[in-house]
């Protein structure tokens, strides 16, 4: 008898929406049609390849799998010890290695000199990657004592292995003393990178530029100027826009490191593509995006997050096998990240409202001792209700806040996943945005490139 | 460049290759072997040349590509030769010791109310171990140890606030000094709340109602030595008057089960030791038949062979019989697991643990300490053991002739630890670079101990290779036989390992 088994680095995932074959080392994704799924599942269940199959299309298909290095024939019902890059002992929580802390998003003030219509955002408001922006949450009251001893907090962050502190607001430039006090503390931690997210207003440009005197600082300017446009010309008459553009022009002239985030809401008259091209043309960079939609009480129409443009779902390739397995066990959006709010609460991100601990007496370590933060880090797609049936989750990078709101409000879920309702992944292959790493596999047609 | 792989067969006859670089197991055959040899520029013999010539071109191309993929991504199958492991300086060894430290073991007394036949302290058959004495640890010494320990793991705690450390009470019979245990627990809970999980290893004869109240109050996990049914247990586990202890222990356990059923269920475990005359089949059955009173078995070990005359008393037939019984148990275990049934706790440990360790083996991304890169060895001090007089040993298993410091002399002696690591490198690790089982090897300081230092134990490498070979073959055979077994096996394995980590403290 002849058996066919997928190789140890070829991981087959199946679900209600079809099947996906991940080539972990080769960094490819294959969407399978139903026949291919059935055949490979039989093979993975150690069933022998049927004789009639050997002569026909199934045999050709398995030969194709061999030539692609995805599996081989065997004369025994061979065990394939599926690839891992770390011992399963890492799952032993507190007995295993320490959590991989990466970034602290630290909201240092709820003050802001702008009055954006989507801010402060309610807990029910669908938000896409609020952490990139300067959005505030409603009902967040500032507790100044949280900032009593920034040196102690920064030291604790560095001890945890945090490599990035992202200072947010409101507008952190309005709390200049607090901001510079924290930046002073980071001087003694040379490995720390510091991002400051601000609309770039409320302070003279030369003051803002002076922040670059501190080591490893990078500004992230939130462009809110697209909001009130009534046409597609981009005059700089509006004073906020004018201020922001001047700042960005200056940063560019100074060769300073900076990034741009464009805020999109239901009132934004341009789409992501347009904004992206415009920013690229003027400042030579692709911006990030954050997106806000009205809460269910305020809006009833169906919507699509503009970020998931033209009904196409972006897929994200893993950089190496380690990252692939990391994504199977963790939520790629928040794993390693925590948000400290102005009242000292620790949350997984700016969009989620889960209180995971509270900083009391400047003690961050005690605040993150509980389980909740880590449970949210480990909320992989398998544990998201609307995604658990989708085998494409490992390549899908959504915003956890939107995912969690999507479990309550289906409009939100449909807003970020165009294939959620339509089912079958193979049939919806044209709806994925990727860079040529997705392929189609069918018994009938063999291997095809998936349209990008 | 040294090839570090070995081939083995499952029960079905399927061939596999274990690769020590990645920790992966590859289905293998003559063609794969010929392709790998060609990739590693090793001369092929005639049959291999013929095989490659006669085989289907597409298959060879695909398998060659596959092999190259593993070579280029992970340098699989062959380890580059180096000029040896780096020798640590005392300055380098200090952070390495404390970064890996996970447990504080307090020897609260050197006294014991039993005189077990195989005890490394009391039996007189282990020439380098201390003898039982009346010495006990003082409160001041114990508190000093706890504070010293916490002070030194502060950097580790800063990196991982969720970290918990083992705090273990060991003896002699630790319950002979219950007063100190109680005081230390109260102190630790007050000064360092939620930092320790506490384990006590006892012979079970002093689990009196009063002592149990104290242990329960402080959520102490208790590991009780029970070697099997009465005749098996009392053969070696006797008191100072040579009287058996089984009945007393069972009475105590029955009391705990009756009065504190939840505590019994969640915090009590059995430890079991066997020698060539133990009827391990009968013992396994005993644990299955008495699980209402005897806590689940969490650790089974053979009487230590290190530097001991204990085994001189046994005949070849004794060893043969034990081997036969072990083979029977292993077959039984495999049958149960592959058919989706739950083996009893003793069987699960005596046979399952070795297979669990195959599943839990290290993989390519698992970091290993630079100074002791191979074997199962840790940097000395991962289980810091403080004796009654403040002397510090690297763990409770070592014979005490090569201490690594003293609480009254500034704590650890990093110069001495660096010397010991270097000695281990020179006497044990020097040949590991060429070894194909370094990720699975369980050699450590305690298995290589001699009088005052390290010595290569005779035949250890060869017997370990044989055991690993059998373990991998059995592991793969189980996985082959039932596609659904892997997940359940993994879950069970993690539970077993968690117990093992607790118990080893």
Physical arrangement of strands within the biggest beta sheet of chain B = 11-10-9-8-7-6-12-13-14-15
Apparent shape of chain B: globular
The oligomeric status of these chains comes to heterodimer
Q: Beta fraction of the residues of chain B?
A: 5-15%
The major pleated sheet of chain B works out as:
10 strands, mixed
Total helical segments of chain B:
18
Low-confidence stretches of chain A: 229-236
Tell me the number of strands of chain A.
19
How far apart are the termini of chain A? 40 Å
Please state the structural category of chain B: alpha/beta
Tell me the fraction of residues in β-strands of chain A, as a range. 15-25%
Instruction: Estimate the mean pLDDT confidence of chain B.
Output: 93
Number of strands of chain B: 15
Side by side, the strands of the main sheet of chain A go 7-12-11-10-9-8-6-14-15-16
**Unreliable stretches covering 5 or more consecutive residues of chain B:** none
Protein architecture, described:
The complex is a heterodimer of chains A (452) and B (505). By secondary structure, chain A is an alpha/beta fold. Chain A is 26% helix and 19% strand. Chain A has helices at 34-44, 51-55, 57-67, 150-160, 176-186, 205-210, 239-253, 272-283, 321-329, 364-367, 372-377, 400-408, 410-416, and strands spanning 3-6, 10-15, 18-23, 28-32, 71-74, 103-107, 127-128, 164-168, 193-198, 217-223, 258-265, 288-292, 313-314, 337-340, 345-347, 357-358, 432-433, 438-442, 446-449. In chain A, the strands form four sheets. In chain A, strands 7-12-11-10-9-8-6-14-15-16 form a ten-stranded mixed beta sheet. In chain A, strands 2-3-4-18-19 form a five-stranded mixed beta sheet. A two-stranded antiparallel ribbon of chain A has the order 1-5. The longest helix of chain A is centred in the middle third of the chain and has 15 residues, at 239-253. Chain B is built from 18 helices and 15 strands. Chain B has helices at 30-39, 46-54, 57-74, 90-100, 139-152, 154-159, 178-191, 209-217, 230-236, 246-259, 261-267, 280-289, 316-338, 345-350, 352-359, 414-427, 460-481, 485-504, and strands at residues 2-3, 5-9, 15-19, 24-27, 78-79, 103-107, 165-170, 196-202, 221-225, 268-274, 297-302, 383-386, 391-393, 405-406, 411-412. Chain B has a ten-stranded mixed beta sheet, with helices on both faces. In chain B, helix 5 (139-152) packs parallel to helix 7, helix 13 runs parallel beside helix 17 and helix 15 (352-359) packs across helix 17. At the A-B interface, helix 3 and helix 4 of A face strand 4, helix 3, helix 6, helix 17 and helix 18 of B.
């Amino acid at each position: 008898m002849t058996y066919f088994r997928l190789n140890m680095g070829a991981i087959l995932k199946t679900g209600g929406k079809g099947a996906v074959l991940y080539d972990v080392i080769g960094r490819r994704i294959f969407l399978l049609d139903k026949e291919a799924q059935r055949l490979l599942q039989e093979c993975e269940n150690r069933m022998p390849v049927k004789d009639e199959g050997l002569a026909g299309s199934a045999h050709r298909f398995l030969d194709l799998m061999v030539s692609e290095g995805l599996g081989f024939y065997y004369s025994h019902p061979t065990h394939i010890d599926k690839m891992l890059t770390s011992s399963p002992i890492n799952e032993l929580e507190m007995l295993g290695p320490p959590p991989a802390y990466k970034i602290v998003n630290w909201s240092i003030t709820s003050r802001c000199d702008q009055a954006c219509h989507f801010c402060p955002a309610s807990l029910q408001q669908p938000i896409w990657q609020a952490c990139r922006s300067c959005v505030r949450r409603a009902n967040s009251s500032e507790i100044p004592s949280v900032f009593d001893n920034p040196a102690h907090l920064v030291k604790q962050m560095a001890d945890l292995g945090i490599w990035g502190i992202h200072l947010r607001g409101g507008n952190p430039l309005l709390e200049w003393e607090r901001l510079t006090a924290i930046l002073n503390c980071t001087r003694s931690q040379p490995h720390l990178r510091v991002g400051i997210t601000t609309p770039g207003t409320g302070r003279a440009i030369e003051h803002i530029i002076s922040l670059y005197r501190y080591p490893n600082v990078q500004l992230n300017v939130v462009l809110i100027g697209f909001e009130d446009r009534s046409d597609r010309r981009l005059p700089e008459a509006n004073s906020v826009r004018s201020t922001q553009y001047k700042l960005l022009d200056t940063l560019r002239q100074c060769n300073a490191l900076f990034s741009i985030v464009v805020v999109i809401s239901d009132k934004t008259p341009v789409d992501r593509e347009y904004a992206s091209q415009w920013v690229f043309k003027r400042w030579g960079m692709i911006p990030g995006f954050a997106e806000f939609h009205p809460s269910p009480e305020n809006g009833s129409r169906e919507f699509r997050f503009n970020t998931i443009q033209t009904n196409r779902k972006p897929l994200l390739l893993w950089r190496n096998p380690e990252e692939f397995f990391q994504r199977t066990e963790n939520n790629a959006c928040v794993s390693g990240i925590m948000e400290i709010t102005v009242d000292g609460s620790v949350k997984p991100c700016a969009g989620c409202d889960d209180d995971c601990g509270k900083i009391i007496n400047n003690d961050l370590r005690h605040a993150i001792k509980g389980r909740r933060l880590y449970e949210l880090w480990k909320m992989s797609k398998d544990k998201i209700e609307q995604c658990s049936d989708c085998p494409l989750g490992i390549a899908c990078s959504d915003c956890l806040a939107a995912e969690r709101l999507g479990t309550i409000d289906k409009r939100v879920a449909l807003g970020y996943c165009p294939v959620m309702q339509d089912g079958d992944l193979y049939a919806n292959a044209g709806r994925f945005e990727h860079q040529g790493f997705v392929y189609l596999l069918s018994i009938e047609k063999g291997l095809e490139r998936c349209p990008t | 460049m040294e090839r570090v792989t070995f081939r083995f067969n499952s029960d079905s006859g399927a061939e596999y290759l274990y690769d020590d670089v990645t920790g992966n197991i590859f289905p293998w055959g003559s063609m794969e072997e010929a392709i790998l040899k060609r990739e590693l520029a090793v001369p092929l013999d005639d049959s291999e040349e013929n095989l490659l010539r006669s085989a289907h071109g597409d298959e060879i191309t695909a398998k060659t590509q596959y092999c190259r993929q593993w070579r280029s991504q992970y340098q699989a199958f062959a380890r580059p030769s180096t000029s040896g492991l780096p020798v640590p300086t005392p300055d380098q060894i200090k952070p390495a010791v404390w970064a890996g430290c996970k447990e504080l073991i307090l020897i609260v007394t050197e006294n014991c109310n039993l005189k077990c036949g195989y005890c490394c302290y009391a039996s007189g058959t282990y020439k380098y171990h201390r003898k039982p004495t009346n010495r006990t640890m003082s409160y001041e010494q114990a508190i000093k140890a706890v504070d010293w320990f916490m002070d030194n793991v502060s950097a580790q705690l800063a990196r991982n606030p969720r970290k918990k450390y083992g705090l273990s009470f060991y003896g002699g019979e630790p319950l002979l000094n219950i007063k100190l245990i109680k005081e230390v627990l109260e102190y630790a809970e007050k000064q360092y709340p939620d930092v320790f999980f506490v384990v006590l290893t006892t012979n079970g004869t002093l689990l009196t109602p009063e002592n149990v109240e104290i242990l329960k109050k402080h959520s102490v996990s208790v590991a009780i030595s029970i070697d099997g049914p009465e005749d098996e247990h009392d053969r070696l586990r006797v008191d100072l008057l040579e009287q058996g202890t089984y009945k007393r222990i069972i009475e105590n356990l029955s009391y705990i089960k009756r009065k504190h059923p939840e505590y019994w269920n969640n915090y009590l475990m059995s430890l079991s030791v066997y020698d060539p005359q133990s009827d391990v089949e009968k013992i396994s059955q005993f644990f299955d038949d008495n699980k209402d009173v005897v806590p689940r078995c969490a650790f089974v070990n053979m009487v230590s062979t290190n530097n001991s005359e204990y085994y001189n008393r046994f005949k070849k037939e004794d060893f043969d019989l034990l081997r036969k019984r072990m083979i029977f148990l292993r077959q039984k275990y495999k049958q149960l697991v592959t058919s989706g049934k739950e083996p009893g706790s003793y069987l699960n440990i005596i046979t399952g643990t070795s297979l669990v360790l195959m599943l839990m083996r290290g993989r390519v991304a698992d970091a290993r300490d630079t100074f002791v890169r191979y074997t199962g060895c840790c940097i000395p001090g991962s289980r810091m053991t403080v004796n009654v007089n403040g002397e510090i040993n690297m763990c409770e298993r070592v014979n005490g002739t090569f201490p690594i410091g003293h609480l009254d002399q500034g704590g650890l002696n990093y110069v001495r630890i660096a010397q010991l690591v270097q000695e281990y490198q020179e006497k044990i690790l020097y040949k590991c670079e060429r070894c194909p089982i370094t990720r699975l090897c369980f050699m450590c300081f305690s298995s290589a101990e001699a009088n005052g230092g390290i010595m290569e134990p005779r035949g250890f490498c060869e017997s370990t290779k044989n055991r690993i070979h059998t373990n991998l073959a059995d592991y793969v055979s189980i996985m082959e036989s039932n596609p659904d077994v892997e997940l359940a096996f993994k879950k069970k394995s993690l539970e077993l390992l968690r117990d093992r980590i607790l118990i080893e403290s």
